UniProtKB/TrEMBL annotation:
Keywords: Amino-acid biosynthesis, Aromatic amino acid biosynthesis, NAD, Oxidoreductase, Tyrosine biosynthesis
Keyword Oxidoreductase among record annotations: yes
Catalytic activity: prephenate + NAD(+) = 3-(4-hydroxyphenyl)pyruvate + CO2 + NADH
Xref: InterPro entries: 6-PGluconate_DH-like_C_sf, NAD(P)-bd_dom_sf, PDH_C, PDH_N, Preph/Arog_dehydrog, Prephen_DH
Domain Prephenate/arogenate dehydrogenase: 3-285
GO MF, any single term: prephenate dehydrogenase (NAD+) activity
Pathway: Amino-acid biosynthesis; L-tyrosine biosynthesis; (4-hydroxyphenyl)pyruvate from prephenate (NAD(+) route): step 1/1
The protein's name: prephenate dehydrogenase
Gene3D superfamilies: 6-phosphogluconate dehydrogenase C-terminal like domain, NAD(P)-binding Rossmann-like Domain
Organism field: Ectothiorhodospira haloalkaliphila
Length: 285
């Protein structure tokens, strides 16, 4: 049972976590904190949080669980603002889409690594932002990756794990580096491809006439290009190295398809498409 949960950034992810834990009845009080009073008021009016404050120090007073659910670029500032004010028994976690950058932001913001810090990332979300898009079942049967550090207190790790399980998620642990490499491939690259494709076609087409002839496949492939541009700029800057590595590899593979088409090499095209269909059908039966 969490006594007081403080969430910095009550948007899609922070709001959904609050709704999930309140629905599970495992949290006595949820306090929201952010820079934007209008966002916090909306969260309170929607019944997502019990109360809010704009003062980060006031927000963490009495909190046994603190969740950083702000954009990646805002993590360090929040840590600086609460430095020296966390309760001694408080667990601290985050939901950022890349992990090495958050670990660095937390270390720099606090001046040292808080022992109660457990880096985390729910692999669940949508292309929508803001608390109005939050819903309590967002994490049901979805994975949450925790990337504990050598310094991480095992009690804090257990408490953060339990929090996500109460929210309906399946928790796994891995290293920060492995997380950033895997997510660069499975989440960051697809988002960049979707943004890149839609932008390319938008600039190619006369007055976006081209989108009128887009079928379901285009919609499926590009839904995530409606995601928050600021969030994805932050992800690219935060996970630059791993993203560049996987983009280079992908560009090579795209080159292979280009060359097969140029050469009229149907066998190679068929081999690539069959391999891809087999893999997709196996993980999405
Ligand atoms: N959108 C998604 O599908 C997923 C996002 N994430 C991660 O979750 C985090 C939050 O993303 P969303 O919930 O989608 O964003 P959101 O835009 O819905 O919510 C972010 C909240 O942070 C607040 N905020 C912004 N700057 C702030 C600052 N400097 N100080 C305090 N509060 C501030 C905003 O007022 C807003 O309420 C990001 O770090 C993102 O990488 C993780 C998994 C999925
Ligand atoms: O909208 C979708 O399908 C997503 O992939 C959402 C998402 C965005 C960012 C993350 O770090 C995790 C999940």
């Amino acid at each position: 049972m969490i006594r007081r949960l403080t969430i910095f950034g009550v948007g899609l992810i922070g709001g959904s976590l609050s709704l999930a834990l309140r629905a599970a009845g495992t949290c006595q009080e949820v306090v929201g904190c952010s820079r934007s009073e209008s966002h916090l008021r909306e969260a309170k009016d929607l019944g997502v949080i019990d109360r809010y404050t704009l003062d980060p120090v006031e927000a963490v007073k009495g909190a046994d669980m603190v969740v950083l659910a702000v954009p990646l670029g805002a993590m360090r500032g929040v840590c600086e603002a609460i430095r020296g004010h966390l309760e001694p028994d408080a667990s601290l976690t985050d939901v950022g889409s890349a992990k090495a950058s958050v670990v660095e932001a937390v270390r720099e913001g606090f001046g040292e690594m808080p022992l109660g810090f457990v880096p985390g990332h729910p692999i669940a979300g949508t292309e929508k932002s803001g608390v109005s898009a939050a819903f309590p079942t967002l994490f049901h049967e979805r994975r949450v990756i925790l990337t504990p550090l050598e310094t991480t207190d095992l009690g804090a790790l257990a408490r953060v794990r339990t929090m996500w399980e109460e929210a309906g998620a399946v928790v796994e642990t891995m290293s920060v580096e492995h997380h950033d490499e895997v997510l660069a491939a499975t989440s960051h690259l697809p988002h960049l491809l979707a943004f890149g494709l839609v932008d390319s076609l938008a600039r190619m087409g006369e007055r976006e006439e081209i989108f009128r002839y887009a079928a379901g496949g285009f919609r499926d492939f590009t839904r995530i290009a409606s995601s928050d541009p600021v969030m994805w700029r932050d992800v690219c800057l935060a996970n630059q190295e791993a993203i560049l590595k996987v983009m280079g590899r992908y560009q090579e593979d795209l080159g292979m398809i280009t060359r097969a088409i140029e050469a009229g090499d149907g066998d190679s095209l068929l081999e690539i498409f069959q391999r891809a269909k087999g893999a997709r059908d196996r993980f999405c039966p």
